[in-house]
Amino acid sequence: MTQLTHVRGEHHPIALRLVASGLPALPLRDGKVPFGNCRNCANNACGGRPNMKTPGPCQCPAPCHGWAAATTDPDVLNGPAWAWAWWEAAAVAYHPGGAGLTVVDLDSAEAIAWALAALPATRTVPTTRGQHWIYLGAMPSANRVRPGVDIKSSMSYARWLGPGTGTMVALPDAVRDLIVREPAPVRPAPAAVPAGGGKCPHRTPAYLERGIAMAEQRITQATGAVHATVFGAFLAVLSTHGRCGCLTEAHTARLFAAAQAMGESPRHCADAWANALTRLGL
User: What are the DSSP calls for 158-190, one per residue?
Assistant: First the structure.
């Protein structure tokens, strides 16, 4: 093991310790970013993992596909396909959501002050600019949920900066609610958009079908900030088809199903839909 550690660099044994404790680990290069995809997977030529639609490890033998490279298999970490990456690695990261965790990344003194007042105490890890607060429980990830605050959990990675101090507690609703960018009253999902009363300007059902399919694809291919992506897709559909009465319960159900497959709750789907209606004055 001593010889293997020497060959693979200083960060390889750290990753092995993380894996032994159940944290899916991956190497980071300069800039604290994952290694790029291998030649066979460049530009997602391999189709992704698959198409990055669901949380889980990448099946490529090399450390590909960003956060999806994270693994708990020591044989993968020790394998020849990863040897070059460990030799060049500048740091180690882990996939919090893969271990059932959520990291609240606080990047400023103001953000830390907010957390001290708004969130329950939990395990805390010092960072270069602030702190990581780590909770038990996974959720969708999102950046810039408030000034200086990012959420790193499912389909994201966090840099390993040590075990920290304190005892982890359950993920509170106050953190889950941070990804609802524009809070709205809980209400049933609208069956359809009120009809405009005039002739539909789209002339053919194929145009609407293409719009729904594109929105579904946009949602299911999101690699981060899922809630914001869902809201943007809903907004795009409603801005085009929201005034003529084209949309039906079946269309809305398809969009909600795509969002929920990416980890959004029914409440968040309903809120995002309602917020999009409000934004457009519908």
Answer: EE-----BS---BPPHHHHGGG-SS-----PPP
pLDDT in single tens digits along all 282 residues of the chain? 444 444 567 899 999 999 999 999 999 998 889 998 888 887 777 766 545 555 667 778 889 888 889 999 999 999 998 999 999 999 999 999 999 999 999 999 999 999 999 999 999 999 999 999 999 999 989 888 999 999 999 989 999 999 999 999 999 999 998 886 444 444 444 444 444 444 566 656 777 888 888 888 888 887 767 778 888 888 888 887 777 777 888 888 888 888 888 877 877 788 888 888 877 777
Q: Is 256 helix (H, G, I), strand (E, B) or coil?
A: helix
At 177, the amino acid letter reads D
Q: Maximum Cα–Cα distance for the chain, whole Å?
A: 76
| CA-to-CA dists, residue 260 to 171, 254, 257, angstroms | 20, 10, 5
Residue found under tokens 């809630």: 227
Judge whether 22 and 29 are in contact, CB under 8 Å: no
| SS3 (DSSP) at 214 | helix
For tokens 């960060």, the residue is 11
Distance of CA 85 to the CA centre of its chain: 24
